[in-house]
Amino acid sequence: MERKRKEMEKGKYELRLAMEELRMCSPGDGEEEQVQVQQVKVQEQPKSSTMDILSVCKQLIHVLDEIGPTLLVLRQDIQENVQRLQDLHERDSSKYASLTVIVTEEMEQGTAKKTKSCTRAIIWLSRSINFSKYLLERLLKTPESSLEEIVEEAYASTLKPWHGWISSAAYKS
Question: In terms of domain of life, where is this protein from (predicted)?
């Protein structure tokens, strides 16, 4: 029972971290609204736009295509997560215009931690954006470094803490 409670707390903590990451990554639409979460009114930060993250990620896929097959695994992960989020958004674009709404709804339904949830897709898209940003900045700042070195450095700094050893092997040379 204690273990299950700790796992639930860890999951809530990870979701809060992900929401903070998204607020930093996404410009949002500037709206503020009152939302009831577990009978407590909470003032939200500006919403994170679903279309904004989809647009950024689609552009990122084009950049990764230009880099070549070195980052094929990352590209495929991004594409899969974009598709999952896009499918939900297309079902009701006005309802799912905000990432906050998507995450809140999945948390209330108890599906946020499921492998194929949009919440997980959003978290991994945010992490992929951070990885790619780091990678591209390093490519510009250290053109003398090899792509392999920069990818490994970017991976270690951004994604490695969230991956198991099997996933980590995909980023090794």
Answer: Eukaryota
Distance CA 134, CA 136 (A): 6
Average pLDDT across the chain, whole number: 78
Residue 96 three-state SS: coil
Alpha-carbon distance of 115 to 137, in angstroms, equals 31
**What three-state secondary structure class fits 110?**
coil
Q: pTM for this structure?
A: 0.68
Q: How far apart are CA 119 and CA 22, in angstroms?
A: 11
Quick one: which of 38, 159, 162, 35 has its CA closest to 110?
Answer: 38
pLDDT at 67: 82
3-state DSSP assignment of residue 37 = strand
Domains of the chain: 2-170 (1.10.3520.10)
Q: How far apart are CA 151 and CA 164, in angstroms?
A: 17
Taking only the tens place, the pLDDT of each residue in 92-151 is: 999 999 999 999 999 999 999 999 999 999 999 999 999 999 998 998 999 899 988 998
DSSP state of 93: T
Helices (H) and strands (E) in the chain, counts: 7, 2
CA dihedral of 136, 85, 109, 158, whole degrees rounded to 10: -10
